[in-house]
Amino acid sequence: MCQKVDPDPKTKAEKKPNGKSKSEKGSGKSLPSKPKAKTTPETYLTQVVNKGRFQKVGDTLTVQAGDTLELRCKGNPVQWAVPAYLEEDDEGRLRTVQHERYGTMILANATAADTGEFTCYPMYCEDKDCRKQYDKAVKVFIFFSDPQELFVPSADYYEVIQLRTNWPTALPCQVTSPLAKVTLHREFPPMEVKVDGREISFDVKKGFTIHRPKQYHAGSLYCVASLGNLRQSSTKYMLIYVNYPAAPPFPAIQASSDTIEVGKDLQVTCTVIGERDVVVDFTWEYPGHKIGRPLHTQDSVQTVQVDGQNRQRSQTILLVNEVREVDHGTYTCTAQNLEGARSASTTVKVQSAPITSKPKKPRSPSKKSYRNLERPVAVK
User: Fold this and answer.
1) Nearest to 222 by CA among 203, 212, 243, 208
2) Using 50, 70 and 90 to split pLDDT, how confident is the model at 21?
C-alpha cells in the first residue's frame, strides 16, 4: 500500500463531491461548527495627536512642557496610575474619562515635574467587584521636556539615602529629557564618580544605581546634566552606609546548669555568630520577670575565627543570683538585627536544698562536777 502512487491532486479534487457528506445526507442538516475560543482583547495605549489623529505609544514618550497630553487605553473599565506628584494634583489639570470601549486620560498644561511612569490597568469585574489585571498592564515613561529644567524639580535641598549591604541603591537623578547627558559627582572631595555599568550604572528612566554598596560609596553626591548650552545640578544625596545582614540572627542558648539548687547562682548565655559590624539586640523572657525580679545581663561583642574567617560573636549573659523556686521554668532569648529576629529557649529546673543534720555541741560540765573540782583535797 505504501508503494501506491498518490493520485494527482487535480484528479483528487475532481473526484471530491460537491454536495454534502454521507452523514449530512442522512440527517439533512449541516454539522454544527466548533465554537471559537474567547480571547481577551489586547490592551494598548495611543496618543491623541490632533482631532482624528492617533499614534501608538511605545516604552517612552516625549512631550513639551506646557502642552496637553491625551492618552487612550483600550478596555472597559480601565484604571490609571500616575507619578506621585500628579496623585496630589489639586489644580484639576488631570482628569480621566471612561468610554464604552476605552478609557481616556487628559493632562493639561504639563510641567517638568510631571515626568514619570504612566500605567493603564485593564479591570476584571464580576458584578460590582473589580480588580486590576497586573499582567496585562500597559506602561509608558513620559518625559516632559522643559528648556529651563533638566531635572525633575524637588523641594528638598538634601535627600538622605541608606546604603544597604548587597542591596541595590538608586539615586533618582531624574532628567526631563532623554537627550540630556548626566554625570555623577562627589561633593567632598570634589570629583566625578566613575560609572562603569557594573558597580554603578545609569538609566535615563531611573537615574544612577549602586548595585553592591560598600563603605566607600558613602558621602554627599549629586548629579550634573547638560543639554546644549544648559548645565544644571541636581538635589544633593547624603548616602549613609548601613551594614545590613544577609539574614536574621541564629541565637544559641545554654544554661550553666539544667538543674540547680535553691540559693545558688545561675547563668544563662545567649550567643550569635554572624557578620562583622552588624548590630544585634537581645531581649529576655524569664520566670522571675513575673514577680518583678530585675534583669541583670553582661553583654559583649568580639571578633572570632570561624572556619578561617573573621566573624562577630555577639553575646549576652543573664545573671540570676541566689536562685529561688520562682526561677524555675523557661528562659527565652530573642536576637534581632535589621533583617529580622529569631528566638531560642531552654528550661531550668530548681530543686530545694537538701536538709542536713546539725552537729551536736559537746556537753558542758554540770554544777556538781564543778563543786567536786573546787573541793580541797586533804593531804596526809
Assistant:
1) 208
2) very low
